[in-house]
Amino acid sequence: MAPDSPSSASGPNPHPSSETRFRELFEQAPTSIQILAPDGRTLRVNKAWEDLWEIHAGTSLYAFILSDEYSLLSDPQLVDSGIAGYLRQALAGESVEVPAVYYDVTVLGGSGRARWVTARAHPIKDAGGRILEVMLMHEDITERVLSENALREREQRFRSLVMATSQTVWSTAPDGRVLEDSPSWRAVTGQSYEEWKETGWLDAVHPDDRERAHRTWMECTTTRAVYETEYRLRQLDGSYRWTAVKGVPIEGADGTVREWIGANKDIHAMVTAQAELAARLGHEQRHSALLIKVAQASRTLGSALASEDIAAGLVEEVRAILEVHQAVVSLNVGGDQEINAVSMSDKYARYRSYAVKPDGSGIYAYVCRTNQVLRLTQAQLEAHPAWKGFGSHAAQHPPIRGWLAVPLVDRKGQNIGLIQASDKIEGEFSEQDEAILVQLASIAANGFENARLYSSLKEQDRRKDEFLAMLAHELRNPLAPISAAAELLKIGSASEERVRRSSEVICRQVKHLTSLVDDLLDISRVTRGLIQLENVAVDVNATIGSAVEQARPLIAARDHALTVRQAPPGSTVAGDPNRLVQVLANLLNNAAKYTPRGGRILLAAECDGTHVHIRVQDNGIGIDRHLLPQVFDLFTQAERTPDRSQGGLGIGLALVKNVVGLHGGTVTAHSDGPGTGSTFTVSLHTV
Q1: What structural domains and CATH numbers belong to the chain?
Q2: Helix (H) or strand (E) run with residue 221 in it
Q3: What is the distance between the alpha carbons of residues 614 and 20, in angstroms, rounded to a whole number?
Q4: I want to staple 133 with a disulfide (CB 3.0 to 4.6 A). Which of 124, 185, 234, 381 is the partner?
Q5: Per-residue DSSP letter, 356
C-alpha cells in the first residue's frame, strides 16, 4: 500500500500517514540532513542542506550530487581530510561523530561559500540489523571557527607587540602565581619557564630586594591594589639592573580578578645616574674622612686574633676605602698560595663562586716573589710579562681592569702573601691609594704574624696540657701494681711463689717506667741538639731485622700478621745503626698499637739507586685528615681507645722525624682517613 493512499475503499483517510509525517519533518528540520545509501551515494537531502551548501533542486550540481556518479567516499576533499574514513565506519554500522572539516563546494562547481562543519553519521537498520541508509547531519561552525581564528590572530598581534617593546611584560593567575610563559622575561633574565613559573621569578630578583618585592606583591594580590615597586633584576650575564615594576588586576564579568598584567621597565641608567651624582657630591666628604677610615681599619685589624678574621676584614676595608669593585687577600700557606678572602661588588656577582687555587704562576706569584708593589693601569697590566699566568683557568678568572697589589711581608722580610685591589670605581689608582694600601698591608702583615703566633701558642699550650695529663696517667699506671706487690711482700707469711710473682710484677712495671723516662730523655736530647750520632755504613736489611726483633713481642701479643720485604742485598746508608733501628722499631710499634687485634702490617724496603725507601704500612685505625699535617709534631697522638690500651706518650713519631732529619733523610705519613690504615715512609740516602 502506498504511503499516501487511502487506508480503505470506504473513503479518504483524514490523518496523514507516518511516511508523510516523517517526510515533512525531514524537509522542515532546521539541521542539514543528507541520507546516504550503503555505498556512499546520496539518496536524499533536506531544505536545510540546500541552504547550507547553496545547492538547490533543479540545478545541475544538485542532480550530480544525487546521481550514481557521485559518492562521498570518493570525494577528494573528504578523502584528503580523512572524513571518508569516518563515513565508512558509519556505513559499517557504527554511529560516528565526524570531526570538523573545511569544505569548499566550488571544487564541485558550486557557487556557495566554503564552510567549516562538523557532522554526526547514524546508520539506519532493518529488524535484521542490515544497513538500509545512513543519516548524515551537519552542523555549521564556520562563524565559531572564524571567531577563534580572529582571537588567535589578535593574541599573536599582542604577543608580537609585547616582543617588540623594550619592557618585560608578564601575566599571573589571580593569586599572583605565574602560570603563563613570558618570552620577554626569559630574554632578559635567562630563566626558563620551569625556573620562573609559580614564584620562581623571585630567584632572579636581587637577594637584598627579594623579600620586600615578594611581600609587596602578596599584599597587592590580597587587596587588589596596583603593584608598583622597584628592584634589581638579574641579567643574562649575571649582573643586576634596576627595574621599575607595575602590575594591574584585570577583572572578569563577575567582578573578581581574572588575572594580573604587568611590566618591568629598565631604569638602571636613571638609578645609576642618581647614584653617581650622589657619589660626586659626597666625594669631598669621603676624602676628608679617609684618614679616619684608615685609623678605624687599623684598630679593626689590630684587634683580630685569627688570620681568617684579619683577611675578611682587610678586603672589606680595602674595597670601601679605595672604592674598588674587587679586593683579594692571598696568603702563602705551607709554601702554597691560597686565596683567603675576596670581596666583590655586584658588578662581579657571577664570579663570587670562583675558587680556583693559584698555581704559582702569573702576576700574583710575581708580586710575592719580588716583594714589589705594583700599581698598573689596564693597559700596563696586560703588557706585563707575568699578566697571562692563571694557568688553565685563565678564561674563568674574574676580570681585573687595573691593579694595585702590595706584598705582605713578615718581620724577617719574608713574603707571606699579598693584598690586591682592582677595578677602581672611578679613575685609575693613585699614589694616595698606593700609600694607603701599603700602610694597611703593613698593619695586616703584623696582624697575620701575631695571629699565627697566637694560634701556635694556643695549640702548643693545649697539646702540652694534654701531654702532661697523659704523662701523669702513664707514670701512675705502673705505680698501682708496684704498690700492690710491695704490700704483698710486707706480709711475713708470704710464700716463695708469691714473693716471686710480686718481684716479677715490680720488675716489669719498673721496666715500663724506665722505657717512658728513656723516651722523655731521648726526645729532650734530640730536640735540644744534644744527641751524638755515629756515621758508619749501615746495612739496611740488618737494621730491618733488628727493628723487627724489637717490635715482634708487641706485634705477636696483638695477633698481627707481619710481612717483611727486604731491600736488595748490599743496600747501605750512612748513619747511626742503633738510632735507625729505633726509628723502624718505633714505626712498627706505632702500627701495632693503632691496628685492631689480628691486623696486617707490612714492612717493605726499596732502592732506587740514590735512596732507600722503607715503608711501614698497616690496616689500622688510620689518621684524620686534619691531624695528618701535625702527626710528627711533639705531643701529637691519635685519639686513644676508651681503655687507653695503646699506651705511650705520643712522642714516638716526633722522635722518628728528628732522628731521620739528623740523618739527612725524610719521613712522610699518608692515610685516606679513619679506618683506612696508615703508611709511613722513611727515605735515606744510599752510600
Answers
A1: 18-146 (3.30.450.20), 165-272 (3.30.450.20), 282-456 (3.30.450.40), 532-685 (3.30.565.10)
A2: helix 207-223
A3: 118
A4: 124
A5: P
Helices 283-303, 307-322: axis angle to 10 degrees equals 170
For residue 614, list its beta bridge partners.
Answer: 605, 682
Mean pLDDT of 669-675: 93
pLDDT of residue 285: 62
Identify the three-state secondary structure at position 132.
Answer: strand
For residues 638 and 650, what is the distance between their CA atoms, to the nearest angstrom? 8
pLDDT in tens, 238-293: 999 999 999 999 988 888 999 998 999 999 999 998 888 887 776 666 555 555 66
Q: Is the pLDDT of residue 132 over 80?
A: yes
List pLDDT tens digits, range 496-524.
777 788 888 788 778 767 767 777 777 67
The stretch 391-413 carries a mean pLDDT of: 82
Lowest mean pLDDT among 211-225, 310-324, 489-503, 543-557: 489-503
Other beta carbons within 10 angstroms of residue 356's beta carbon come to 13
Q: What is the DSSP letter of 639?
A: P
- Which stretches does DSSP call E strand in 109-209? 115-125, 131-140, 168-172
Burial 99-133 (b: 16+ CB within 10 A, else e): eebebebeebebebeebbbebebebeeeeeeebeb
Span 154-158, average pLDDT: 66
Q: Is 367 exposed, middle or buried (0-12, 13-18, 19+ CB in 10 A)?
A: buried
244, 267 contact by CB (below 8 A): yes
User: pLDDT per residue over 343-378, tens digit each?
Assistant: 999 998 888 888 777 777 778 888 888 888 999 998
pLDDT at 392: 63
Alpha carbon distance 411, 309 (integer Å): 20
Other beta carbons less than 10 A from residue 279's beta carbon: 13
Please report how many Cα atoms fall inside a 13 Å half-sphere around the Cα of residue 88, on the Cβ side.
9
Grid coordinates representing 595 are: 691496628
Cβ neighbors of 52 (< 8 A, separation 6 or more) are 32, 115, 117, 138, 140
In angstroms, the CA 523 to CA 634 distance is 9
Distances (CA, A) of 283 to 275, 279, 280, 321, 346: 12, 6, 5, 12, 21
Residue found by looking up cell 723502624 in the block: 584
Report the pLDDT value the prediction gives residue 672, as an integer from 0 to 100.
92
Q: What is the 3-state secondary structure (H, E, C) of 272-309?
A: HHHHHHHHHHCHHHHHHHHHHHHHHHHHHHHHCCCHHH
Q: In 3D, which of 272, 8, 37, 271 has the Cα closest to residue 131?
A: 37
Predicted TM-score (pTM) above 0.90: no
Task: Say how far apart CA 398 and CA 404 lie, in whole Å.
Answer: 15
Query: Are the C-beta atoms of residues 598 and 559 closer than 8 Å to each other?
Result: yes
